[in-house]
Design brief:
Number of helices of chain A: 11
Order of helices and strands of chain A: HEEEHEEEHEHEEEHHHHHEHEH
CATH class of the largest domain in chain A: Alpha Beta
Radius of gyration of chain A: 20 Å
Strand content of chain A: 15-25%
CATH architecture of the largest domain in chain A: 2-Layer Sandwich
Oligomer: homodimer
Low-confidence stretches of chain A: 1-13
Structural class of chain A: alpha/beta
Number of domains of chain A: 2
Mean pLDDT of chain A: 93
Shape of chain A: globular
Chain lengths: 334, 334
């Protein structure tokens, strides 16, 4: 890594670097970027199993990235952290079943105290939306929906060129729209959320349905013979082998992804839909089908422009990059 | 009606009056208001059955209201019209199954030509949202959702104190969120839209289910003995009589209303939800149940502020009043 050389006429904000951190239920991803979103350094660590150790696990990623920067003669300007769940305007997580150690905590304040740096926190998928809107696949769109598909589903809504936070900061949780009210149970406890059908967990649910119908032998084999152990990666592997039953599963999956996107488009009329998160790796296998089916399911589909459905340019790193961008915004705003 | 007397220090925009028109599939409502939303005159006419006569039917309501104003020594400053369906930024209806005579037509231009007045058009429920946000039940809320429940469901989304139009002007059609994907067929042709369960038509669907289970004798009687003839007003009448089966129907209805509102709140995080449209007349019989059930169905319901669900202050006239307010905005903007 070479030290950025300020050009004549550029100011601190142009060359400043920040640390962005995306906290998931199983891993913590940290990146260092400037306002251009180019990742100068990255670090992945497992999320501590004990909830009370999670805040220090997050801080440790930030500290390690700062140490690496200092070794290169650099200093971060700020830290931005994304957490999954309902984050209020002050950055406090009110509801986040995947990261119980962060609930109720001023996580930005915790990082501020540990690093003596400006720090901000927001919902992880909202930060992904910031990255994709400012620098990625939704660049130039006044209205955009970013959906992150991993174990669960997150989302960020760009409205009038800005992230929509809503009254409490909680806006943008499309995974918990009710879409098949008597369908599978969701991790949140409710029955029929979109997340139970169109996330990684939803993909596994659909594979188990196919297995229960007596198909999906190869997927079952890859999962070690136990339907309860089927996960997204087993379906991905079977897809790589062109297993016909995996194609059936991904076809059903694409249909459900399309139904939820149709609801979102009918409600919000975005110019583009960006799909990110861990399932971005599989997007070639389902996005073309999703695109066709959205047109069928959206209100007046034949009478309105087709809304492009595209993969996230920052892939599964969008949330961390967005954290860094938000942190730089805070520094620029003074 | 007395002629408004301009006060010293007030300008034209303060005392100007406009005509607002709400076009439905069965009737056209016109009102005259100032910026205070107080209705100085109103006129209801049936929507012409022949599609090609609808534009003139709309113009006739505007002309008659203007004639009444002129008789009082007044002049309207502008006309604003709301139509159900997908209305673009220029006021052209692209998809509107209930008013085929207006589809593809520049209805504002038609009124401009006929009345020689400034004219604007927007979605009917979006105009209802403008009225409720500016002067009604959502007054003072930065983020609000207005849902109009009549034969179908319409909606208007207030985001950051402004109506959300989206990329094409089509935002805000919550009736066609897919909520019970294998549930009843909607008027739009798709299966499982919220509208098929939580509108006047949805209420009738739920009554027919109860009748099919061998109950609902009084509702069936009020409908002349034919389940196919059951409409919202029969259930309303049975409710007035405290018919226990009508209470079962309204209980199921409240549950479905709550499921859709929960999806909207999870997605948009409004400060308030306002229910308007023709079913406002029944709102006392279902809003308290809706309120309780929304908390159960919304993501993290126990960990976030309760979002009040309230009836529209302008009731079924909100769309027409909003049309007048939008028309006055256009005049004020020059």
């Amino acid at each position: 890594m070479t030290q950025p050389q300020p050009l004549a006429g550029t100011d601190q904000a142009t060359t400043a670097l920040a640390i962005g951190i995306d906290v998931g239920g199983t891993k913590i991803l940290g990146v260092v970027t400037g306002a251009d979103g180019v990742i100068a350094n990255r670090l992945m660590a497992p999320t501590p199993k004990e909830p009370e150790r999670v805040p220090d696990g997050i801080a440790a990623v930030a500290v390690e990235l700062r140490n690496r920067m200092v070794a290169d003669g650099l200093e971060p300007a700020a830290v931005g952290v994304g957490v999954p769940g309902l984050v209020d305007h002050e950055g406090v997580l009110h509801y986040g079943p995947n990261v119980p150690g962060v609930v109720g905590l001023d996580i930005a304040g915790h990082l501020r105290g540990r690093l003596d740096l400006p720090a901000v926190a927001d919902n992880d998928a909202s930060l992904a939306a910031v990255a994709e809107h400012r620098l990625g696949a939704a660049r130039g769109y006044e209205h955009a929906i970013i959906v992150t598909q991993g174990t669960g589903i997150g989302g960020g809504l760009i409205v009038n060129n800005a992230l929509l936070h809503g009254a409490n900061g909680f806006a943008g949780e499309p995974g918990h729209m009710l879409i098949d009210r008597f369908g599978p149970r969701c991790a949140c406890g409710t029955q029929g959320c979109w997340e139970a059908l169109a996330s990684g967990a939803g993909l596994a649910n659909l594979a188990r349905q196919v297995i229960a119908e007596g198909r999906g032998a190869r997927i079952l084999e890859l999962a070690g013979g136990d339907p309860g152990h089927v996960r997204g990666e087993h379906i991905a592997e079977a897809l790589d082998e062109r297993d016909p039953d995996a194609l059936v599963v991904i076809d059903k999956f694409a249909w459900w992804v399309a139904q939820g996107l149709a609801s979102l488009i009918t409600l919000l009329d975005p110019g583009i839909v960006v799909l990110g998160g861990g399932l971005t790796a599989l997007s070639d296998s389902f996005i073309p089908d999703v695109q066709d089916r959205v047109v069928d399911a959206v209100l007046g589909g034949a009478y309105r422009p087709v809304v492009p459905v595209v993969p996230a340019e920052f892939g599964a790193e969008a949330g961390a990059v967005g954290g860094s961008l938000l942190a730089l915004d805070v520094v620029a705003a003074g």
